[in-house]
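Lab meeting tomorrow. Please check the following:
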Amino acid sequence: MQVAELIATREFRVTQQEIDHPPPGQVQVRVQAVGICGSDLHSYAEGGVGDTPCQFPMVLGHEPSGAVVQTGAGVAGWSPGDRAALEPALYCYHCEFCRSGRHNLCADIRFLSTPGHAGFFREFVNLPAANLLAIPRSMPIELATMVEPLAVALHSLKFAALAAGETVAVFGAGPIGLLTVACLRLAGAGRIWAVEPVAHRREMARRMGADAAIDPHQIDAAGQIRNDTGQRGVDCAIDCAARPHTTNQAIRAARNGGRVVLTGIHSEAMVPFEVSPMRRKELALYNVRRSNHESEAALDLLVHHTARFAPLVTHTRPLDRIAEAFSIAGDYTDGVGKMVVTL
């Protein structure tokens, strides 16, 4: 099978590897599409994600969909040709966090696409049957790659704890930010501000449901949001960009007693927070780690609101052009929203 390996920062090679038959309880899947995530771009451009360096060569990609090839012993309910969104996280199911239902915090988690655990930029993969989520025949395989990032956005909304009509500012209108805007609109948010320096992403944010889109290179975003709210601030500020200035802009944009949700992943291991306004406002600060049992709800949203989410997938490239795909996605060029690698 073909496998795309990241062998150094900004350098891929496509190799040939073998794959065994699926063991008992597992399913072999022909991977057909994989979305490029922001954390993939961190690995590609920076050689790591936060304080976790890459271990080259490594296989990235954790937003996959595909079709069943064969099943291992003891697997029921799946047949060759069945299409599925694929879950990238392998849990132990025995630690205290798994037993309490917080599987995303599993003490022994293996997340495919992290160092030592190959991701999905490869033609075939063996997965536990529980990691497959059946998708409708009518769903484009590229759209099914949105299940994983949309689940992350839904998980962030648990911390946002949005009441109907509450105001929200979303910092960063990359794919996760755009999905967050769409989820907020469907959840009954009041006015939504999107803060994004890239012009075509601001326009996409408006199409996804933002009432206002601010260019932070042209204006103080937090100041504008405070002005728009009569100096009150928003009920919730969600940082999907994860830059030091965006986190602090979110802190400044939130109202007294408001919530700040950190969905994006910072490049730096240490990030300075403006603690004085955070303290004076008695803000609640929440951190998001991937998702936790939101995939079914994400798929349901994609099925019932296809017209809202489908336009986010703007670009595809085949596996042998993965370097081009990452270059476009990483540099925000060509009007890219979501880039999907097809196999």
The mean pLDDT is 97. Residues 154 and 294 are 7 Å apart (CA to CA). The chain has two domains: 2-145+305-342, 150-287.
